[in-house]
Amino acid sequence: MNPRPAIILLSGGLDSAVTAAIARERGFALHALSFHYGQRHAIEEQAARRVAASLGIRRHLFQHMDLRAFGGSALTDDIAVPKHDRVADLPSGIPITYVPARNTIFLAFALGFAEVVGAADIFIGVNAVDYSGYPDCRPEFLSMFEALAAVATRAGLEGRAPRIHAPLLQMTKAQIVREGARLGVHFGLTHSCYDPNERGQACGRCDSCLLRREGFRQAGVADPAAYQTT
Amino acid sequence: MNPRPAIILLSGGLDSAVTAAIARERGFALHALSFHYGQRHAIEEQAARRVAASLGIRRHLFQHMDLRAFGGSALTDDIAVPKHDRVADLPSGIPITYVPARNTIFLAFALGFAEVVGAADIFIGVNAVDYSGYPDCRPEFLSMFEALAAVATRAGLEGRAPRIHAPLLQMTKAQIVREGARLGVHFGLTHSCYDPNERGQACGRCDSCLLRREGFRQAGVADPAAYQTT
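Output (structure tokens, whole complex):
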């Protein structure tokens, strides 16, 4: 019997790589979907391609879109990415790196891709612990999207609406690192930094770098990412 | 007092033009969003620009995406667009022109745009009468998307989730034509055909052309669209 197909949203970051490894362990044939949305760097695309190759992904599609046109986010605009020295310094609330409706847009594409591929499962690496400030990283959002999927497509009308899986949802970053280590994820292929330099080295001080480094430290696992020496 | 902003999804077709005119009549300042998703013809883009200009739209954004990569639709693939002689000949069920998750994707972008613009209203020209076969043209779908919007974004968390307006939802095509005539819509600027020739002339026999022609006929209004002479 052929393995069942599943869609994995793959950014090239740590979380989506571990999510893909979990889906693979569950026996799915993975169809990956990656996005460019006016990020500052093509580094994420390279990371997504490397991670996909390392995980034996069946098919890998890229969608290019211009969320910069909307404006309003440090990830898509020329707003400076905030830097901090410690995780404890991260502000609470919705971070400036929030991109309006990003996960709604990503899951909407995944829904279309799932219908064409015949996939009844979509995996997304969102996390409600470290990214509690993002509205679209919460369980309420994911449940509601699943309810939308049931009425939005042909598959939904036929009772085959895809389920949304977010296996990292309630994990800490340290737990994610341990899970990735157990599954043999090549951490060195992943890219997390919001503000890398021109050589692709991570800044080490943006929200994403701080959470990643702290996660590796707490997990007792070496982080092979290349950080800028400051 | 400045008029409240609203997002209008504008395809350049008859329905979205009439929807925009309705939103304008209700006093909104319109921010339009149009999509290219691997359609066969750039004619829709030109029509969307013309319609936007004729309606005094405040700002007009285009998003380009490649839904062809997914496959599975006569609107994005090299599958022939079906032709018929009469509306009565149109098959029931989901048409071959269905694009998986299209309206979910469009509304997801509209949601992001609305948040950045500060719009509490999104207008979409879907119609459940003539397009009853499309799952994402039904009231159940629109209600569920509105529920999703309430949990998906910062605006939602702050109690300012946008409402989704689909004023044409229960209208027949003839009623849409009459409403457009009342509002002074320049029907000649709109484009409906799924399969125009290289000069931009409508085929007259695809689902969209048949429904449009029948609508104008029933409404007793002349259709200024250019049809191929066969």
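The mean pLDDT of chain A is 89.
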